[in-house]
Amino acid sequence: MKLKEIQQKQLSNLITSAKHTDFGKKNDFESIQGFQDFTDRLPICFYENIQSQIEELKQGKQDIFWPGKVDKFAVSAGTSGEGKHLPLTEERLESDRSFMRKVVRSYIVQRPNIFDLWGKHISIPGTLEQKEQYQIGEISAYTAQNAPWWLSPFQIISPTKLSQLPFNEKVNQTVKEAINSDVRVITAVPSWILTMFKRVLDETGAKSIKEVWPNLSLLVCGGVKLANYKPHIENLLNKPGVDFIETYGASEGYFSFTDKLTKTDMKLVVDNGIFYEFIPNPLPDQESMAIQETVPLWEVKPNTPYAMLVTTNSGLWRYALNDILEFTQTNPPRIKVMGRVSEMLDDYGEALYAYEAEEALQNISKEMDIEIGNFTIGATLQEGASAPQHFWFIRTQEQLHRDTLDRLAKKIDQEVCEINRHYAIRRESDALGLPSVYSISQQQINNWLASKGKDKAQGKLPSILRDEEDITFFK
């Protein structure tokens, strides 16, 4: 079946399933004939548009967006705010299980000797909380709890048990149990894999993870961009041949994964209860995005930045995600995630996207032979300064000397001027000063996450810092 037919079938099935819900009746789903009708009838949706109905779902009201009762909700970790509570239907959970089966099958085809994985597995899921009428938690906790039964004997600690513990306790207990085990597979957010590795090395006195877990074969990562962590993880592993699988998913669903171990782009899963739309060259604010035209999956083009909308079997309709992605290939579709739509630094008219900053750092890291991990940027006008400036906080494997950081600042300035004309104009007119660069550690990032109450499985450092106090925290 062709891509267009597959996606049209997904849309038709979703509309048919929900036509007797409150939302389906309100928008006359019975009369929708295809994609054009669908987009004409339904506006682009943001969380704020459905928040009050989600509260009704949590109180037990049925048939609002999807047939039946919803008593499970996924907390969208995000990088700011209190988090969003998104509905999880049984159909969505089954689609998530189907996604994971696709990941497993893809890997076994490439690595048919499954006995390499015949040992202990570590997973660090999020936390679940049982309320009076519903369950709520991070999507990774639901995924872990719904893992196939036959994986249970391999788990170091039961995912069900871990999902009930505070996050630091999960890591502490996992490290304690795993140090003397034959660990073969680890599934976790890359930042927490890095944290766990360092803790294991501190506990054992080993110089590399290979000394502790010589048979470790596979790391399955998601939640944050793997590329920002992989070189540092590989350095601590000191073991060639360990495979990495990256998954791209969220509380809204699982979308893509690295189906080819030799590539870094990901296969978009198109037949799993999700209909996709895309906004080309998205603007960073919701008001602007809401009136932009969308294209269906079968009309996307490569090397164009898109924001993604999803319509899913959890009852989300034309729901806007905050990610920017590009297609490396359109048929079959393969993607790479570039950054966040809202992660633009524009405090002083520079309009700098986080993915542009990342591109600059990638170019510089090769030129200066520095391993650069994830980063965050803030902007402020310091007392006594003649112009505002950017502050770049970059995670590096080792603390960099000030002279190296100063050279790095000049390189960043040059690269960003090449990439972003708004920034270049402001630098040329002295409306922005030379950026200042600081080297930070993963422990500093963990401390910041803890200070914000975000030290969770899916907690992540934002690429853009909005508050003066956060800039001060890292300086």
Would you mind describing this structure in some detail?
With 475 residues, the chain is of the alpha+beta class. It has three domains: 3-92 and 264-340, no CATH class; 119-241, no CATH class; 344-474, GMP Synthetase, Chain A, domain 3 (2-Layer Sandwich). It is built from 17 helices and 20 strands. The strands form four sheets. It has an eleven-stranded mixed beta sheet, with helices on both faces. A hairpin with a 2-residue loop joins strand 8 (243-250) and strand 9. The longest helix has 21 residues, at 90-110.
Secondary-structure map:
Elements: H1 3-18, H2 22-26, H3 35-41, H4 47-58, E1 72-76, E2 84-87, H5 90-110, E3 120-123, E4 128-130, E5 135-137, H6 139-145, H7 159-162, H8 167-178, E6 183-188, H9 190-204, H10 209-212, E7 218-221, H11 230-237, E8 243-250, E9 253-257, E10 266-268, E11 274-280, H12 286-289, E12 295-296, E13 306-312, E14 319-330, E15 333-340, E16 344-345, E17 352-353, H13 354-368, E18 372-380, E19 389-396, H14 402-419, H15 421-428, E20 436-440, H16 442-451, H17 468-474
Parallel strand pairs: 1-5, 3-6, 6-7, 7-8, 19-20
Antiparallel strand pairs: 1-2, 4-5, 8-9, 9-10, 10-15, 11-12, 11-13, 13-14, 14-15, 16-17, 18-19
Helix pairs in contact: 9-11, 13-14, 14-15
Q: Measured on Cα atoms, how large is the radius of gyration?
A: 23 Å
* Major sheet: arrangement of strands: 3-6-7-8-9-10-15-14-13-11-12
> Per the principal axes of the C-alpha atoms, what is the gross shape?
globular
The total of beta strands comes to 20
Major β-sheet annotation: 11 strands, mixed
Helix content: 25-40%
* Distance between the ends: 55 Å
Contiguous helical run count: 17
**In terms of per-residue confidence, which ranges show pLDDT below 50 for 5 or more consecutive residues?**
none
Q: Which band does the percent of strand residues land in?
A: 15-25%
Total number of domains: 3
**Structural class by SSE content:** alpha+beta
Tell me, rounded to a whole number, the average pLDDT: 90
